[in-house]
Amino acid sequence: MQSSEENIEKKWLGHFSDIHAIVGLCLVAVFLFGIIGLVSSKKTDRPSLMADVPVYYPATPPEAEPAPHDDTKTPAPDAVPEPAPEQNAPQPKQLANSSPAFISLLGDAPLEDTYYLAKSNGPRDFYGGRWAPENIETTADGTTFTVKKEDNPDVPFSIAEASTYKRYGYGRYEAIMQIGKGSGLVSAFFTYTGPYFGDPHDEVDIEFLGKDTTKIHFNYWRNGKRGKFATFDLPFDASEGPHLYAFEWLPDRITWYVDGVPFYASDLNDPSIPKTAGKMHFSHWTGIPQMRDWHGKPGFGDEAVTTVSCASFTPMGEDKRSCSDVYKEKKNS
């Protein structure tokens, strides 16, 4: 028979073996969790492949046709209805320096009466021509913004831009436009302010590339940081006739419209939503050679025209006559 001392020694050895086994298992577990944590952290730090995919906000009423979207994008599921605002809840404040509502029927009077016409002697920044006030003309169809070829190798093009003297903030911006067609052209309707005015770079855009006027591009910036931009197919060619383009810029969301139909919206409370009132701009231009990968090599002939026949701003929470009313009247007539 074994002595009691030998039995005690065996029990202790058995306990030590169990302890070693448990410790070993713990070390293996820690090692495995460490690998999982490392992989997880790498996945978290890695930019999402969906980062540049726009969020499609189907705000179309049930009786209307679905808003078209770019087939290369992945629409998000239907948005969850937002809760009704609380009674007596504080209303969002308008931005500082924002001016009252206005509507301009462009073509009724020279544009320089109410807009600043951009002027420069030659190309600068990423623009490939000189800003030429004479390229902005009043016609029976509206105000034309023309891009022209020039017989000057140092200044190969003249381009056109106009901006309001006043600043505007939260509200609905509308324009009736017919877009210039041709590779190398960019037409834009946007609000902007930036360092030139002593402000952060804040901007909301609607843009068209003349190389494919069946698409529309939406952008927005806050303090130089770009939001979730998007490109969509239009159900028409924007160069073949005038259409109504609009965006509604609110404190918590921007929504873009085409002919009254909502096409796209920013995420709710997106930190890239602008917070500084800016000037309304219309421009038609071509860029420096480095821009051609984006807008294409100039191939529009001697000149090309974008026409703007109406521009309006309606402050948040107000109901004023706007380009929507003008567009409906023209359609009905």
From TrEMBL:
Single annotated GO MF: hydrolase activity, hydrolyzing O-glycosyl compounds
Database matches in InterPro entries: Beta-glucanase-like (IPR000757), Beta-glucanase/XTH (IPR044791), Beta_glucanase (IPR008264), ConA-like_dom_sf (IPR013320), GH16_AS (IPR008263)
Transmembrane segments: 19-40
Chain ranges of the GH16 domain: 84-313
SUPFAM superfamilies on file: Concanavalin A-like lectins/glucanases (SSF49899)
Keywords assigned: Glycosidase, Hydrolase, Membrane, Transmembrane, Transmembrane helix
Active site per database record: 203 (nucleophile), 207 (proton donor)
Top-level taxonomic group: Bacteria
PANTHER family membership: XYLOGLUCAN ENDOTRANSGLUCOSYLASE/HYDROLASE PROTEIN 8-RELATED
Protein name (record): Beta-glucanase
PROSITE patterns membership: GH16_1, GH16_2
Region (Disordered) location: 60-95
Pfam families from the UniProt entry: Glyco_hydro_16
Family of the protein in this entry: Belongs to the glycosyl hydrolase 16 family.
GO biological process: carbohydrate metabolic process
